Amino acid sequence: MAMDFAKGITEFRWHGRGGQGVVTSNQMLGKAALAEGNYIQAFPEFGPERTGAPVRAFLRISKKPIQVYAQVYHPDVVVCIDPTLVEVVNVAEGLKDNGTLVINTDKGPEVIREKFGVKGGKVVTVDASTIAMEVMGRPFYNMPTMAAAVKATGIVAVETVTNEVLERYPGKVGDLNKVAIERAVKEAKVG
Amino acid sequence: MSVPKNKITVEGLTGDAAIAYALKQADLDVLAAYPITPQTIIVEDYQHFAANGEVKAHVIPVESEHSAMSACVGASAVGGRVATASASAGLALMWEILYCAASMRMPIVFTVANRALSAPINIHNDHSDGMGMRDSGFIQLYCQSSQEAYDTTIMAFKIAENHDVLLPVMVGIDGFILSHNVERVEMLPDDVVSKFLGVRKPFIALDPDKPITMGPLALTDYYFEFKEQQDKAIMGAPKVYKEVEKEFADLTGRKYGLFETHKTNDADIIIIAMSTMGGTAKVVADAMREKGDKVGVIRLKMFRPFPAKEIAKVLGKAKAVAVFEKAMSFGAATHPLALEVRTALYDAEERPMVVDFVVGLGGRDVTPMTFVEGIEKTKKYIAKGKAPMYETLGVRK
Fold this sequence. Notes:
The complex is a heterodimer.
Chain A: E1 9-17, H1 22-35, E2 39-44, E3 54-62, E4 77-80, E5 100-104, H2 109-116, E6 122-126, H3 128-136, H4 142-153, H5 158-168, H6 172-187, E7 189-190
Helix pairs in contact in A: 1-4, 1-5, 3-4, 3-6, 4-6, 5-6
Chain B: E1 9-13, H1 15-25, E2 30-33, H2 40-51, E3 58-61, H3 65-77, E4 82-86, H4 88-93, H5 95-103, E5 109-114, H6 128-132, E6 139-142, H7 146-161, E7 169-174, E8 182-187, H8 190-197, H9 223-235, H10 237-252, E9 259-262, E10 269-274, H11 275-290, E11 295-300, E12 302-304, H12 308-315, E13 320-325, H13 336-346, E14 353-358, H14 368-384, E15 391-392
Parallel strand pairs in B: 2-3, 2-4, 4-5, 5-7, 6-7, 10-11, 10-13, 13-14, 14-15
Antiparallel strand pairs in B: 1-8, 6-12, 9-11
Helix pairs in contact in B: 1-2, 1-7, 3-5, 7-10, 11-14, 12-13
């Protein structure tokens, strides 16, 4: 029997590139979970930030205080913000059998399933790059990709996370992110 | 009387941000600091408070950590409430003045995001900086969570400024692992913290109208007497710590003790670890108990003064103690935490085997499986009746 060091905890691992907002979206989702009464840990893979280099971040969400302090090796959910990273990194590494893989890509879930050999669980794809460019005119993929993760997992209400985003980015940036989030929720494909 | 729930603010804060907020509420007179990763957010946030007029403190952006601690000593000498923050090489540069601060009996709260020492340069967590200063005379309190970092920072002032103590206090959090980790933190209302801490009443203060000299020179005539008194002061700190914590627990319901015990009563193997490792160890103990291994944990909070008697009492019935520590004392018989534990046990009637694992240097992730590996080794050593003095885990050999 494998030992479970994350009882009652939902564990996320995020992938992206430095500058894409991996740390921020991880914290946004964490704070949304906190707002819904959970305990959280939201932390980046520590190191000097280098724009464009692969980066990771981790999130734990639990109804009870969280005691374990280590990186996440067997995530329940993997979220990959950068569409090119799937060619470089095995983002599905360690993903639980019944886990959820969320990828920003223009490909469908079946293509991603085959690419990473994911048999069980859920694979969710969203073309967050296109959404970001069309809505915001700039490649801010992080929020729409997070929105797909929220939709797929139901870990928090979409409204809660939108409120966090609006609070952090009041004004136009927040409003546009809200539009991008809502569109991503509609367009995300679960397979 | 405990503070009602509707007066408590709940926020997601990193360990650093939680400390900054505690410093804000402590109503400092002076904060003198020089930036260094990973404590940067503490001073950065505090500077925001200062720029926004939310705090009255005089913030001194000094030119080095040596100056930071010197400025703190000066400010504390005139009777101010004083804090600073540092880590690693910055802490090392304070070295000379750390001893002055303690020996001159200056209450100063020194928050540290514990980080490895050079070389090679490494920004990540271990306890080399904290262990390096362990003989300086500072009280040392190591925290597991952002909540504990907030709580401990507030309590530290009341301990440091108590006239039976009058010593600087280091509050340690694991660099990055906690300093940059957003957790749920409950914060007290400002007025409750103000009332809890009050205004510092200096035992003796520098005053131009009644000039005195502090800490100048004592040779063969009196130096030793200063040290004798300093020793008495730090050994009396646990009593004050317990009183302060009781008062704090009455407000918040939270207390941590000199150390926290987790399922130690019937344990065959007791893990001793500090800071975030102590949290992970508790989870590992729970998981190993499900497989039938009776594992318990002591998460040590107060490393200085070292609660030797209390620790020996808890360890008494175990077959072995597995120390997990993030520092090396090069050339020593074992490493800092295990040295203390072995010494604590020497006079005990029942002496469990002491196994010392050095882990996580330079931020190498200490996973639950690192602990499992150590426990499995310890089981073998118990069966053999013999263990090495120390060993490293999780390193290429």
